[in-house]
Amino acid sequence: MKDLSSGKVFLIGAGPGDPELLTLKALRLMQSADVVVFDRLVSDEIMALVPDSIRRIDVGKMPGCHKVTQDRINALLVELARDGQTVVRLKGGDPLIFARGSEEAEVLREAGVSVSYVPGITAAQGAASSTGVPLTHRGLATGVRYVTGHRAKDARLDLNWASLASGDTTLVIYMGTANIAEIAFQLMRHGVPSTLPVMAVSSATTPRERRILSTLGGIAADVAAAEPDAPVLFVIGHVVSLYDSIALADALSCDGAGMAAYA
């Protein structure tokens, strides 16, 4: 019988999808836990690394369809830990970047449950590495900002558009597919040119990755036409102008990944 005081929760980042981008610590814990509680954005390739002997609980949420509410997820983690279980809470990307990891940790700590983080490669870094498009580049971007394109309960976006409308900064929009038209409109309304390059990357680092090259003025229509599968990340900024030369170099080196991934 398990010691009821020994339960613990590990909030683990599964990275953008490629299982080889997991940390060694994440893999070790995934393969030694009593139970893995996982999100929809954790790739099948990563879940395949969890031994069949370990219990799995799917708490994935889809836009407008939360089969397991966040409150229920919080309660479930507390229940499992209080039962003496070693729990891996597996999240896409990094648990502390738009993943509600800190909210779950707060609930667990208030319940007296031991909790630890294991970082993961966030989607922005994964997309940058797989496409070759940097998030910063001398002469093109002196900084990068990660921005949520979604609000809880589908509330209206209330971002500080004026602060985001900077030509020297790369904007990376997470969870922005449903609101990309509004995001593009507000940025243009605050002075960003409609010709600014934009790249949408879906399922970054996985065999299902797709890339859509567009502009701020055209990205909403292009994404609507392409209907890429989630998760979709938007990279907005001058750094995207480097993509064509990167894709050509890949093609000439017989890699081919850059050209094949065009939508």
Descriptive overview:
With 263 residues, the protein is α/β, with parallel strands linked by helices. The protein has 2 domains: 8-118, Cobalt-precorrin-4 Transmethylase, domain 1 (3-Layer(aba) Sandwich); 123-260, Methyltransferase, Cobalt-precorrin-4 Transmethylase, Domain 2 (2-Layer Sandwich). Helix content is 30%, strand content 21%. The protein is built from 10 helices and 10 strands.
Provide the CATH top-level class of the largest domain: Alpha Beta
Q: End-to-end span in angstroms?
A: 54 Å
Strand proportion, as a percent range, falls in 15-25%
Structural class: alpha/beta
Instruction: Report the biggest beta sheet as strand number plus sense, adding barrel if it closes.
Output: 5 strands, parallel
What would you say about this model in short?
The chain has helices spanning 24-30, 44-47, 70-82, 101-110, 123-131, 161-164, 180-189, 219-226, 243-252, 257-260, and strands at 8-13, 35-38, 55-58, 86-91, 114-118, 143-148, 169-174, 197-202, 210-215, 232-236. The chain is an alpha/beta fold. The radius of gyration is 20 Å and the shape is globular.
